Amino acid sequence: MSSRWRVILVGVLLTAFLFLFQGTVLAEEAVKEAAEKGSTLVWWMWPLILFVFTFLLGILAVVAGVGGGVLFVPIVSSFFPFNLDFVRGAGLMVALSGALSAGPGLLKRGLANLRLALPMALIASSCSILGAMVGLALPTNVVQTALGATIIGIVIVMATAKKSDFPEVKKADALSTALRISGIYFEESQGKEIEWKIHRTPLGLILFILIGFMAGMFGLGAGWANVPVLNLLLGAPLKISVATSVFLLSITDTAAAWVYINKGAVLPLIAVPSVAGMMLGTRIGVKILAKAKPKAVKWIVVSFLFLAGLRALLKGLGIWG
Amino acid sequence: MSNGTRPSEEQLKYASILQIVSLSGLAILILGFLVYIFGVLPTIVPVNKIPEYWGLRVHEFVEKTGMPTGWKWFVLLNHGDMVSFLGIALLAAATVVCMLVVLPLFMKKKDTPYVIILLIQIVVLVLAASGLITGGH
Q1: Which residue of A has its CA nearest to B18?
Q2: Which of A30, A67, A283, B41 gets the highest tally of CB atoms within 10 A of its CB?
């Protein structure tokens, strides 16, 4: 990495973290003030702050290789004065817009696979509706506690899950054979075509029940769970798993998003700046990533995610905030 | 791209439709939001009042502001805050539109398992969109 890019990255990171911590103080004060005498901030400052915040979050998400959707809900709910219902509604829209934007390119290049995604998506999306309904019905502190515990679990998965570029699948299982789930793609790093098939499909489908439920309940993107299941359990190559996971989100999150929209939990004033900021940030992040790939950034972001999870857990239990 | 690596006809069709619908959705989302925040149209809830209520749970928010739920926003599109929902709804409807377009291709190929999967998926998404499934308060 050139020193110029190192300086830019450190600058972006420092700005992001200063902003995030400043956001905590600002948000807490604003909530207190709003409760007592109404917010002193001009209304348009909030969408602007949210836009800048999610823009930085988008950059960090790409550079760190962590999904923006999974960062959005715990971090925004910790540092902004919005009710968790609206943060989850916006979180689903953020994850959905990202998946919808990336989906066409991944499908056209043959990296995301429609036949692999559709059966998994049917299970995940049905369960995400259930998750959304449960999430909106439960008391906030219960959802916050569960969110905190889930985020800490996600951090553990991120820190420990291994990845396999080309998992060995000796024999496709009966279900995937019947559904003709297999494919060939061109692996640029090796300059050759790679054939792939999957196994353990029934077990994978069972796990998508849980993944879908959690995506709907917490408004999180589920790439952190989709990829290990598709790659390590089902045996799809890593590139196919990552791309199919992104495409899968476009279906899973759609179902849950409708529940939030119909309940009134998608507030344009929160959702639109978040979607715009995150999308712009991820585009800039991709450009930074092409020049530099610092591993340390991932661990800084994952640590921050852990802190946000811990804060959500303690907040839910009434210990902090 | 060789014949072996070329995605299926259904996959390519799905991708093309998804691209058109999602890009239109994003454009309308941003335009609708600009109409909203610049006060081009009257609003159901004044935009400067929203921060007073966004700390409430959604059912309390709806109760206090009178913000419409379900599809009621559709008949109130002459309001700035409702115009933003057009883009949101289009993004959320993109998947079902793509599925409706590729369904006949699967039917033509007599790919029965995927026809069934798609039909169930469309029903699930339409039910979610209809507002018949909501739960909560």
Answers
A1: A104
A2: A67
Average pLDDT, chain B: 92
Residue pair A91/A69 in contact by the 8 Å Cβ criterion: yes
Which chain A residue has its CA at the smallest distance from B71's CA? A262
Q: Are A27 and A308 in contact (CB under 8 A)?
A: no
Does residue B95 or residue A297 have the better pLDDT? B95
The larger pLDDT score, comparing residue A292 to residue A38, is at A292
pLDDT digits over B6-32, tens only?
899 999 999 999 999 999 999 999 999
Residue A163 sits in which domain range?
3-316
Helices (H), chain A: 3-37, 45-64, 68-79, 84-108, 114-137, 140-160, 174-178, 201-218, 223-228, 238-263, 268-291, 295-316
- Domains in chain A, number: 1
Instruction: Identify whether A10 is part of a domain.
Output: yes
- Cβ contact (<8 Å) for A186 and B56? no
d(CA B37, nearest CA chain A) in Å: 8
